[in-house]
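Structure in, sequence out. Go:
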């Protein structure tokens, strides 16, 4: 699993670099954000001329995953709005999730920002600057249809082996509830672990479970045993002190909510839009 992740990172990094070179060749140096300058609209400094480089961790549908050979999802679409405002194109680099907590790829200049369905926490704020919240997230408990598990408390009482994605707030929550969760490297690995019987239940973000259950085979095999409101909100991150890019991200989020774009993207990637539930307050 780790080896596979490393291979994927290198392949996508190479693809990104190639796409960046094509973009550079196609742009003129006279335009803002063109091939001759790393300065985009609004004076935003970019790590590569002509592109907004986004670090993410794949797969994590419906926020980002490869569909028909292209990385797509809610986060991708939201950052595309930022890139459009800056007059550049978004390029995506797949990286290990643990680096988002430390800001390593931002600090090393490999990425301009990170978009990975990441919960805003006080601990993470020590290493990166978060955008305004763009999504209210809840956790979910997914179990086999014939498991007999009815809730997280029931799973605990039955001493069920529980799975979660490594380095996530879902894993942290499970530990706080007294579980010793089996850690999986990606959301796909979490589901595969449940399918293979490595674990009897998993805790992961509810929108991810929503996406899984849209597939008939998954819906036939698994069921939602509970939604857990942990008060989490997602944010995009930039390197500490990168105020101009942060302002551009916040502006794109605000405008998308105001002009209806956010609602359209939400319904496309996540599901029915509840304005009250899906409008997180600014932090």
């Amino acid at each position: 699993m780790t080896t596979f992740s490393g291979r994927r990172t290198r392949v996508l990094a190479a693809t990104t670099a190639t796409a960046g070179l094509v973009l550079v060749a196609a742009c003129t140096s006279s335009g803002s954000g063109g091939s001759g300058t790393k300065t985009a609209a609004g004076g935003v400094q970019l790590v590569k001329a002509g592109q907004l480089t986004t670090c993410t961790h794949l797969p994590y549908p419906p926020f980002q995953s490869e569909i028909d050979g292209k990385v797509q999802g809610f986060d991708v679409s939201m950052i595309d709005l930022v890139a459009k405002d800056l007059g550049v194109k978004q390029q995506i680099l797949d990286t290990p999730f643990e680096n988002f907590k430390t800001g390593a790829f931002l600090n090393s200049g490999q990425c301009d920002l990170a978009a990975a369905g990441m919960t805003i926490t006080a601990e993470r704020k020590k290493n990166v600057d978060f955008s305004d919240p763009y999504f209210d997230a809840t956790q979910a408990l997914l179990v086999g249809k014939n498991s007999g598990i009815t809730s997280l408390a029931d799973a605990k009482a039955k001493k069920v082996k529980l799975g979660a994605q490594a380095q996530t707030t879902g894993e942290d929550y499970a530990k706080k509830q007294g579980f010793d969760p089996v850690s999986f490297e990606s959301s796909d690995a979490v589901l595969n672990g449940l399918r293979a019987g490595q674990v009897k239940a998993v805790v992961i973000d509810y929108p991810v479970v929503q996406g899984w259950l849209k597939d008939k085979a998954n819906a036939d095999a698994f069921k939602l045993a509970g939604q857990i409101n942990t008060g989490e909100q997602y944010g995009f991150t930039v390197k500490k002190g990168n105020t101009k890019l942060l302002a551009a991200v916040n502006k794109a989020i605000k405008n998308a909510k105001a002009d209806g774009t956010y609602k359209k993207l939400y319904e496309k990637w996540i599901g029915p839009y509840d304005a009250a539930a899906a409008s997180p307050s600014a932090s």
